């Protein structure tokens, strides 16, 4: 069974204000980015079996806008994901149900690019680009050939970086 992992950095957020980082909403530009990214992701991924979403306001808002264009079977909002680094997120993904074909993660930098780089099996131009970080509203689409429980360093292939169309 082939699997797809999509690591999506949230869209552009407002600067941190008095309410703190977790409550930063999307900026107007971010709402526009997420709205344009949804149809692009739908073309690339089709249906999503599971979406894991950070508890931060900017990630839940990004997911809400993007998922208007996706068929999402199940989603979970996770405080653990808000605080996770690449290795912690990898551990969460290893616990995903074996029947899930497509998993979308809506999270933060540098975790999204760090995990994409860690999983990628080739050190090519795309790996180099992702190693420097990914912009807001960018999604790393990763082909996973192993069961989720066996996901590890260099066991998947970063096939593309999807961004909103201008």
UniProtKB/TrEMBL annotation:
Source taxon at top rank: Bacteria
UniProt cross-references to InterPro entries, sorted A to Z: His_Pase_superF_clade-1, His_PPase_superfam, Mito_Ser/Thr_phosphatase
SMART domains named among the record's database cross-references: PGAM
Keyword presence, Hydrolase: yes
Pfam families found in the cross-reference section: His_Phos_1
Regions that span the bilayer: none
Keywords: Hydrolase
Entry keyword annotation includes Hydrolase: yes
Name this polypeptide is given: Histidine phosphatase family protein
